[in-house]
Design brief:
The structure holds two protein chains of two kinds.
Chain A: H1 2-18, H2 22-42, H3 46-70
Helix pairs in contact in A: 1-2, 2-3
Chain B: H1 5-27, H2 36-54, H3 56-62, H4 65-84, H5 101-131
Helix pairs in contact in B: 1-2, 2-3, 2-5, 4-5
The chains are: A mainly alpha, B mainly alpha.
Chain lengths: 76, 132
């Protein structure tokens, strides 16, 4: 279970770094946070999982979307 | 960026449930996973959903900027007052004054309100700066 989750983390991280569109990268980052929350929950840390889900998938996505809207949309 | 109906409807229906979940996390923080910070962030993300999807005008109908600012300001004072309740017993800061759920519950509620107001304020000010 944990190995599969870590593999998903690795794939998502490589995708986030290599994708051209910044908006898609932000959304993939939110999915990465969601899988982190699942991983923390599997490792018996529900408190950390809640914080990760709320901060990683909620607030930091808001900030990143705001930043992408202010700056350029794609990597040159 | 073009807005669709999906964003409008989903944000309007989902936000009350996120707020309710935030209140649950804050009020049951002493017996189940969760607590002041987690519940506060959940509360803030419920408000931010409305702010991002429908704009600050819709949000300021129920939660004006001034109200959130005042909550954020007095939250810290309330936390200090609740913490200093321990001095009445002659023990230290944050010492339990009430029987077990009491002090933790009050501290959780105060921290939840302060964190929720604070994070909402940060993002609201960033959002307003964008419009200028």
């Amino acid at each position: 279970m944990i190995e599969i989750l870590l593999l998903v983390h690795l794939i998502l991280a490589i995708l986030v770094l290599s994708i051209r569109s910044l908006f898609t990268a932000v959304i993939l980052m939110a999915i990465f946070s969601l899988f982190s929350a699942v991983l923390f929950f599997v490792l018996h840390a529900p408190d950390v999982a809640l914080t990760e889900a709320a901060v990683g998938a909620g607030v930091s996505t808001f900030l990143y979307i705001w930043i992408v809207k202010r700056t350029q949309k794609e990597v040159k | 960026m073009k807005k669709t109906n999906i964003l409008d409807v989903v944000s309007r229906k989902l936000s009350p449930f996120i707020l309710l979940f935030g209140v649950y996390l804050v009020t049951f923080g002493h017996i189940s996973p969760g607590g002041g910070f987690q519940g506060g962030v959940a509360l803030a993300s419920g408000l931010l959903l409305i702010l991002l999807a429908q704009g600050p005008d819709v949000l300021s109908r129920t939660f004006p900027l001034l109200k959130i600012s005042i909550m954020e300001l007095i939250g810290y004072g309330l936390f200090l007052i609740a913490g200093m309740g321990g001095f009445l017993l002659g023990s230290g800061f944050l010492a339990p004054l009430l029987p077990p759920p009491g002090t933790i519950f009050i501290l959780n509620v105060v921290i939840g309100a302060k964190v929720g107001a604070g994070i909402t304020l940060i993002c609201w000010h960033l959002f307003q700066e964008e419009k200028e």
